[in-house]
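Reposting from the mailing list since nobody answered there.

I have sequence plus structure tokens for a pair of proteins and want to know whether others read the tokens the same way I do. The first protein:
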Amino acid sequence: MNLFAAMKVYDRVCLFGSLTAAARELNMSTTAVSRIIKDLEDDLGVRLLNRTTRRLSPTEAGRDYAERVRVLLGEIEELQDSTRRLDRGTRGLLRVSCSNVLAYTRITRLIPRFLEQNPLVSIEFNLTSRYVVGIVEEGYDVAIRFEAQSDSEIVARQLGTVRNYVCATPAYLERRGMPTHPRELADHSCVLSNFAKRLGTWPFLGPDGRFSVPVKGRVATNSVEAAYQMTMSGFGIGNLPSLLVGQAIADGRLKPLLEAFQPASSPIYALYPHRTYVAAKVRSFVDFLMLELSSDLD
């Protein structure tokens, strides 16, 4: 048994949760993948996977083995990169996780340009509304998020800052009136979302410094895009990034409020595993994003 090849197969099986999907990814037969997993289990003397007719899941030993295999495979890839001096020719599959709003408003249109500059790189681009993603556990090379993660195993490089607006439709303001101070938001219907952790408290920067006010509303969502749509419908006041509301403010469909009290901005981060050798493909992608987004986010 080729142990390194078996580890790669096991990593793909755990990542996709399916022998068939892993076989498709590896261009192998499902029978061959199943045989390799059995040989690996026989060599280790433990069961790694629980198999039923409907699902496949790692055992406790299998989960621990999968996490350590993924780290080991990543370190081997980095060793290969550094030894080959791939800064002369970045290559390989880059697995990227990105928040929906950043993907749709900025990152998606940049990826073709990055791939044109790096013809030996391919990208697997996964979108999610989750604010925290298990970068190492889920096998991502880079995650692009509005928030850094408190994790010693993760490096966070700030790509830029997005301005936020407290805003509402003219129809809502005609119906409910316009607040003149953030404290008056307590008397309004606010559209609450967990964007930048602002579900029930909104931070501001005023003439006397930073402060926060409590807000309330009849709807709360884990999707900033849903909060934007409900604000656009006239349901209430939203606290939303310029990436979403910039055009609506420019054409008058939304009106910015409390302009003397600037809502706190949101930093954008590229997150990647903290390792001695950062793969050339990761370094090139993050550097590319920093260059492209430094003056483009607002």
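The second protein, same order (residues first, tokens after):
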Amino acid sequence: MRIRYMTRCGIFVGAMALCAWLAVPLAGVPVTMQTLGFFLALGLLGSRLGMVTVGVYLIIGAVGLPVFSGFQGGFAILLGPTGGFLWGFLIAAGLNWLLEKWVPLWVRMVLCQLVIYLCGLIWFSFLYGESLWAVAMVTVLPYLLPDAAKLILSLFLILKLRQHLYH
């Protein structure tokens, strides 16, 4: 991998960490700007480098660097209540990569957000033995509007920044 690409990935790993630290704690799952960093990485780096960025982010978080919400790190976070959402980033990045050539960016972003929700729901439900519906009421429904706003903001930033970064 070229140094330029490694540098870009590193910058966006840092951006994802910074966005994860910007959090408002609520019951269940905190509201963070982490998805903003995720979508910016995918939209500005492209699907392949975006997926590498998400993978590196999860790896450095798993080994203990405090890149997750609340300045936390460690493998236990990936197995905790928010772990499904974190793993969902990697799965969503893979989906984005698969659909990149055929599906418009905004549709991929919405699908990625849905995949992140689904992964988080399934994991949270598994941990606590609750129904998906009950878990959705706590971990998804309160976050729909903030997440929609972050998605729209990231799409706007991607469209504006792309023209300056790559021309």
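Reply #1 (J.P.):
I read it the same way you do. The longest strand covers residues 23-24.
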